[in-house]
Structure formats: structure tokens, C-alpha cells
Amino acid sequence: MKKWGQLTLVLLSVSFTAYQTLTGEDSFFTIDFFMFTVIAWFVGWQYDRARFFEKKARLSEESYKRLLDTLPEAVFIHRENKIIYANMATVKQLSRSSIEELIGESILDHLDAAYQERYLERMKQVKKEQLPLCAIEYKVKRRDGSKFVFETSSIRILFGGEEAVLTVGKDITEKKEETERLLQKSEKLALLGQMAAGIAHEIRNPLTSIKGFIQLFKHNQLKKEYYDIVLTELDRINTIVGEFLVLAKPSAVVFVERNIKDIILDVVTLINTQSILNNVQIFAEFDQKLPNVCCEENQLKQVFLNLLKNAIEAMPKGGDIHIKVQEKEEGSIFIQIIDQGVGIPQDRISTLGEPFYTTKEKGTGLGLMTCFKIVESHHGVLNINSVENVGTTIEVILPTVTQPYLKKEVHYC
Q1: Handedness of CA 137, 295, 129, 122 (dihedral sign)
Q2: 253, 273, 318, 381: most buried, per Cβ within 10 A?
Q3: d(CA 178, CA 2)
Q4: 322: burial class by Cβ within 10 Å (0-12, 13-18, 19+)?
């Protein structure tokens, strides 16, 4: 550490004292001389120290930038949604010619409108957490108007002495498209055949009833209950088509941080009337200080409503349903729904979740299929364990806000 500031101030003190001595105003070695020289030495030392650490910080920041520029992944630093630094991979990703073009631009200007709220929610979470958050996808716009799927992870850092956010991301458009193509190719024919057979079977039954009653109407054999049956069958067809739309409709949902306990208690409140009518009691147990989950709240409520409705219907003579919510492993929340129902035969469990496969007399199988799809979209796992005449346990495992994706494994017991 160079001591130019310290030497300069001490020399100034000595020079001033010497000048006073030469002009005859005072002697050289006085108390004032020693006091001002010590002060000059201390102030100079502090000045040199500050200069040293400032230079060290600048060198460290420059080294940091050079390191980021060598990375193949897009890395950029932003503060208050404004880009303050980006590496060359980011520049190429966004079709810019230099880093300077990106500096000062708003990140929201680069995001597809449907994903802006998702980004703002994610930044709220980043400010609360010390660890990097799990990866999340956005649709990003290039200068030429083309769009790509960008998977990113963010963490709060200090940059230039102030708080900022560092985001690392990669273009997964091709990977996503290739995965979808492979899945479609392997499953398309089998699914089409299965779905076609299911649709034909499910819709033919109510149509047969409607046809028969219309023939009765033709012969003027009118009764009020006939109209009620026709309307009921039409509602059934409408329900089947509606469940298909839920499964097929693509949407850019906004994942936000939520308390799983609040979600489950809301669902229990909603379904309490049905449970009371069926002589079923629902008991919920929660661990203390459960971490939050990153989710689409209404979708998770749909999952738990479906699972509780199935549990109630599995107990025609009534009984108890126990809901247990625990953090058995760090970063994962386990939600168990345990009923005392009739159970499911072992040979049928592995086919649960397939469209139109159901153990209920008037079911379509689409409700449980929807549950699987929603849990998977939340990077979670849904497990089923059942014993005939004892009951069924459904376990939903969801990652917390700081946990990476869970392995996509479904266990049937």
C-alpha cells in the first residue's frame, strides 16, 4: 500500500512549522507541531488506506467482469429492473452489437407481456432470499421481434458497493421444442387411440339417453322427469368437454410465493359442506414455520379439491380424512391426504391418472389426470398408496421457493 497521502500531509505539517520558525513567529519543536504532525500522519494513513481498498475493489470488479465475459451462458446484473452490466453472451442472445447498448435498458422491455408479472414476483422473492432461487422460464424478445424461451436463476449480490441482482440464463427453446417433439412422437398415436375410445364411450352413453327421451317426446309421452334427465345428460357432456379444455389449454401462469397452509385451509373450508353431508370429518395438521412454495394458487387449490373430493366419495359410509403437511426434507414440503375409504385394487393403481380410466361409476379419470399435470408443472411429485378396505394415502411433494426441481418420479404402492 503506497503512502503518498500520509507523506504529503506530514511534509505539509513540517513545512508549515518550518515557515513559522523562519519568520520568527515560533520555535520549531512545539506541542502544536507534534500534535498537527500526528494528526497529519493519521489522516494521511486513513486516506492511503481508503485509496488502497478503492483500487482493490476496482481491480476485483474488473476481474469479475472479465470472468463473466468468458462464460458461455448469458449473465447480466440489474438494479431496479435496469441492466447495469451484461456479458458478451447476453449481448449475442439479445441481438445487440455491444454491452453499452444494453446498459440502462429495462428488463421489462425485453420480456413478453405475459411474463412481466412473473418476473416482478420473482424479484420480490430474490430480495428476501440469500440463496439462488430455482430456475424459472420466461419468453424473451430480441431486437428483430423474434422470441425465445429463456431459463434463468437469480441471486442477490453487491455490485459497485450497492445491492443488485445477478441473473444467469440460457436459451432452452430448441431443447424444449425437441423434448416436446419426442414426447409427441412417442405418445401421439397411443394417446389419440385411447382418447378417441374414451370420448366415444363417455359421450355415447348420455347421447343414447337423450335420443331415447326425444323419441318419447315425439310420441307426446311427456313427463317432467324426462326433461330433467335430458338436461342432466347434456350437463355431463358439457363437463367432459370442459375437463378436456382444462387439460389442453396452454397458458402463461404467474407463479407467486404462497403459504401452503393458507391454500389448504381455504380448500377445506370450500369442501366442508360436502364432507358434512357425507358424514366425513376433515382434520388438518401442519408443521410450525413451514416454508413458502412458488405456485399458481388456483391450480394448487384445484388439485387439493379434486383429491379431497375423491377421498370423500371413497367413503360412502363416512369416516375421517387426515391432512398432514410437513417439511420432512429441507427444501421440500410433503402434503399427505389419508382417507378411510374402500381403497383401490393393486392392479388398478398403476393406471390411475390415465384419461377415462377411473374406479368410480360415473367418473372420467380426467380429474386425477389434471392433478398429475398441475403437480408436474410445479416441479413436484404425486405418489399414491392404497390398501383395499383400509384406505388410500395421496402424497404431494412440492419444492419450496429456494429448492431446485424435484425428480419427476411417481410411485404407486
Answers
A1: positive
A2: 381
A3: 59
A4: middle
- Let me know: does 337 contact 284? Beta carbons within 8 Å: no
Q: Supply the pLDDT for residue 273.
A: 81
What are the Cα distances from residue 145, in Å, to 95, 104, 118?
10, 20, 21
- State the pLDDT at residue 407: 45
Give the C-alpha separation, 339 to 324, whole Å.
Answer: 12
Q: Which residues pair with 163 in a beta bridge?
A: 158
Please give the pLDDT value at position 195.
Answer: 58
Phi, psi dihedrals of residue 13, rounded to the nearest 5°: -65, -45
Residues of the chain with pLDDT under 70: 1-70, 182-205, 209, 213, 215-227, 229, 236, 238-253, 351, 353-366, 403-413
What is this structure's pTM? 0.52
Give the per-residue pLDDT at 409. Answer: 42
How crowded is residue 275: how many other Cβ atoms within 10 Å of its Cβ?
20
Q: Could you tell me which residues are beta bridge partners of residue 82? A: 79, 106
Residue type at 10 in one-letter notation: V
- What is the per-residue burial (b if ≥16 Cβ within 10 Å, else e) of 175-191? eeeeeeeeeeeeeeeee
Q: What is the pLDDT of residue 179?
A: 76
Non-local (6+) Cβ contacts of 134 within 8 A are 153, 294, 379, 399, 401, 402, 403, 404, 405
- pLDDT tens string 281-309: 999 999 988 999 988 888 898 899 889 99
The C-alpha torsion from 138 through 143 and 147 to 148, rounded to 10°, is -60
Axis crossing angle, helix 366-377 with helix 297-313, rounded to the nearest 10: 140
**Alpha helices of 114-172 — where are they, by DSSP H?**
116-128
Question: What is the residue type of 53?
Answer: F
Torsion of CA 118, 124, 128, 133, to 10 degrees: 20
280 and 320 Cβ atoms separated by less than 8 Å: yes
